[in-house]
Design goal:
The chain is mainly alpha-helical. It has 7 helices and 2 strands, in the order H-H-H-H-H-H-E-E-H. The protein has helices at about 20-40, 45-60, 70-85, 95-105, 110-120, 135, 160-170; strands at about 145-150, 150-155. A two-stranded antiparallel sheet has the order 1-2. A hairpin with a 2-residue loop joins strand 1 (about 145-150) and strand 2. The longest helix has 21 residues, at about 20-40.
Length: about 170
């Protein structure tokens, strides 16, 4: 499972100097595209997660220099949306895949292909705790699951000793 540090320094449209120039330019463009899309259609939580995920594209050696930056940007937004049920009309914000693709000016097939590549490479699943919107974390059952003596339990229902043990393990 790929870990995303919560308090890590953000790329903030200026990827590191250790990234080759071509990749840095592409990554910068992908981040600018996802930032603009999220500011216009989604919210700051989505923007931050998309920025983090765009940075991960290079970190896991995806070929971001191949293909259009709009294709990768749409794939990033779709992947984050997929994790967080963006297509669910009960969610706010809410967008369909068709709306996301149209917002980037790419086909749904292109967007979902890039999204699938990203999801597979990062080991994403729905409600993935590392890529879940912070506003959804409290209600995300996966955040509260802990393995104790080969049993999975909700830490909120665990005896105090298990809660202390989980605190020590996560420190």
């Amino acid at each position: 499972m790929t870990k995303r540090k919560k308090n890590k320094k953000r790329v903030s449209k200026q990827p590191g100097k250790d990234i080759p120039e071509e990749a840095r330019q592409t990554l910068t463009e992908i981040i600018e595209l996802t930032d603009a899309f999220c500011q216009k259609h989604l919210n700051e939580e989505y923007r931050e997660l998309c920025e983090d995920m765009a940075t991960m594209l290079y970190a896991v050696s995806l070929p971001i220099e191949k293909g259009r930056p709009t294709s990768w940007a749409s794939g990033v937004v779709h992947a984050i949306g997929w994790v967080n049920f963006l297509q669910d009309p009960g969610q706010s914000p809410h967008m369909t895949s068709e709306q996301v693709a149209k917002g980037f000016g790419v086909s749904q097939a292109t967007m979902t292909t890039k999204s699938k590549i990203i999801r597979d490479e990062l080991g994403l699943f729905q409600l993935h705790p590392d890529w879940c919107l912070s506003s959804m974390l409290e209600d995300n059952p996966l955040v509260w699951m802990l393995e104790v003596n080969a049993f999975i339990m909700d830490i909120r229902m665990a005896p105090r000793e298990a809660d202390r043990k989980s605190t020590r393990l996560n420190s």
